[in-house]
Amino acid sequence: MLFAIIPYVSHKRLPDKIRISINKDTPLTFFSLIDLINCGRALAARQIPATKPIISIGLKFTAKNIQYLLIFLLYTNLLLISLKNDIIKWMKEKTMFESAKEVLKIFSDNGFEAYMVGGFVRDYLLRLPSHDIDITTNAMPEIVKGMFKDNYNLSNKFKTVTIRYNGYEFEVTTYRYDKSYADHRHPKTVVASKLSDDIKRRDFTINSLCMDKDENIIDLVDGKKDIELRVVRAVGDPNKRFNEDALRMMRAFRFAARLNFTIEDKTYKAIKLNSHLMSFLSKERIRSELDGILDAEYLKDLIIPMLKSHIFRLYKDVELAFKTLYENYKKLDTFRFIVLASMLKGSVTNEILLSKKEIDGVKKTIKFAELIKTRQLSPVAIFEENPKYVYDAYDVLEVLDITPYKRSDIDEIVNSLKYKTRKEIDIDGNDIMALIPKSPKDIGKYLDCAYTEVIMERIPNKKEVIMEYVKELYKTNLENDKKDE
Fold first, then answer.
1. Potential cystine with 417: which of 44, 208, 297, 379 (Cβ 3.0-4.6 Å)?
2. What is the structure's pLDDT at 85?
3. Structural domain includes residue 383
4. Are 155 and 135 in contact (CB under 8 A)?
5. Same domain, yes or no, for 137 and 268?
6. Which of 181, 206, 229 marks a domain boundary?
7. What is the pTM for the complete model shown?
8. Do 248 and 280 meet the contact criterion of CB atoms below 8 Å apart?
9. pLDDT attached to residue 67
10. 96 and 220 share a domain?
11. Are residues 171 and 108 in the same domain?
């Protein structure tokens, strides 16, 4: 008796090793987790027509090989359980993707061109998840608003219309080309009549691919080839692209670090040649791109090329921080990177845009770093502070190769803090004022001493005990003052 399960699906990007065959002569071959993910994404996005099998099981029901089927079913169920969140994401992406294609069809039915464009198409070809889809069209904004009636918002940015469809938002921008740029950042845009004009003004070839409603890829700048080569290449003349918008130099490194690409040689040389244009960028824009660069998975491989490009030569704190990070690499988010730059400088760096809250946080983190360096970290120091700053300080010190504590030591100190806020301590300033006739400044000192004794668990957290401690402390201080006289 032969039992077969054959789901007929095919996709040109699926690896052959995902096929499985089980019979008395062939052992069970497990497919890898990444293969299952790729398969699931392709299925969820409806990219797979029914033409050939990817999983084929031929199995004779005998005592000898029935165990193979049981093992296979168990393994599959465990994978599906572990992939629950990924499956939800696939379904959501599929819905967004299908909704975008329906939007393109609405444009087509009304006699207009419309394409998905940019990052989504790039990520689609790379089999990476995407969170939004941009659309470009030859329809004017007024026409777009008319087609989607009340389901839109109009942005002043390049007359972009954000439409809402099936619960998703899509940014729709009319074809345009840039006549000139002010301060190497802000373009003067003009409506274009052709898709090719719109594509030629974009930053990099991998971001200039389009997809129509039938999932056909429109590639006017060899973006697919550069994806296969895994390179970031400027569209057209790279010197012109970076003179138009100096921020593109940072974006080149962000994409390369995120996608594990290299920067194409002419593009890289143009970055070095135009690195001085970074001076035209605002701190807001630099901070935004820096966030993306530091969040990238493959940053370490790009640090040296980035430093040699000199894009940070006007930002010495940032440059030194990257040099130090490379020497003892550890993934840092932007906040911890800023702490590193500030510690190397000796004060809070002013080269990166920081909110007042972040400045306060950087100062607190540096304070904790000093306590860790000198092995003076205690529960009292952490009292009423965010323990996150303690761990941020520890991570930065690891980059600096200063680790007098183990992480487990930090955990022990943080977890030993029984009381987190003053409200949890059974005494306040009014209690102290009723007890001793002193100035508010002295009352604060006595209150801090009481908090310390309770936090260190040298006295119990009971009002009568704490009051007695303060009374004795006050008495001792009076006696000492008399001796000094």
1. 379
2. 67
3. no
4. no
5. no
6. 229
7. 0.74
8. no
9. 57
10. yes
11. yes
Residues of the domain holding 480? 422-484
Residue 52: is its pLDDT beyond 80? no
> Which pLDDT score is estimated for 478?
79
* 157 located within any domain: yes
Q: What is the DSSP string of 414-475?
A: HHT----SGGGSS--HHHHHHH----HHHHHHHHHHHHHHHHTTSS-S-HHHHHHHHHHHHH
Which of 229, 252, 277 is where one domain is finished?
229
pLDDT for 87: 61
Alpha-carbon distance 314 to 249, whole Å?
A: 14
Q: Are residues 121 and 204 in the same domain?
A: yes
Over residues 266-283, the pLDDT tens digits come to 999 999 999 999 999 999
Q: What is the pLDDT of residues 142-171, one digit of tens each?
A: 999 999 987 777 765 567 899 999 889 999
Whole-number pLDDT of residue 474: 85
Residues 51 and 62 in one domain: yes
Backbone angles phi, psi at 59, to 5 degrees: -140, 125
| CA dist., res. 226 & res. 232, Å (int) | 7
Tokens 């600096």 map to which residue? 400
Same domain, yes or no, for 204 and 121? yes
Q: Is residue 33 part of a domain?
A: yes
CA distances from 52 to 7, 72, 292, 387, 438 (A): 8, 21, 41, 56, 88
Burial 402-411 (b: 16+ CB within 10 A, else e): eeebeeeebe
**Structural tokens at position 153:** 């918002």
> Mean pLDDT across the stretch 39-44?
48
- Cβ neighbours, 10 Å, residue 310: 16
Q: How many domains would you assign to the chain?
A: 4
Rounded distance, CA 152 to CA 131, Å? 19
From the number of C-beta atoms within 10 Å of its C-beta (0-12, 13-18, 19+), residue 111 rates as exposed
pLDDT tens per residue across span 360-409? 999 999 999 999 999 999 999 999 899 999 999 999 999 999 989 999 99
Residue 237 lies in a domain: yes
* Chain center to CA of 144: 32
Helices marked H in 136-246:
141-148, 195-200, 223-229, 238-244
Contact 160, 173 (CB under 8 A): yes
Pair 240, 220 in one domain: no
The answer on 256 and 214 residing in a single domain is no
Give the model confidence (pLDDT) of 177-193 as tens digits: 776 665 555 566 677 77
Going by C-beta distance under 8 Å and a sequence separation of 6 or more, which residues neighbour residue 474? 435, 436, 438, 446
| Strand bridging mode 176-182 / 152-154 | unpaired
Q: Which DSSP string do the residues of 356-389 spell out, in sequence order?
A: HHHHHHHHHHHHHHHHHHTT---HHHHTTS-HHH
> For residue 194, what are the contacts with CB-CB under 8 A and spacing of at least 6?
138, 175
CB–CB of 35/19 below 8 Å? no
Instruction: Assess contact for 354 and 348: CB atoms under 8 A.
Output: yes
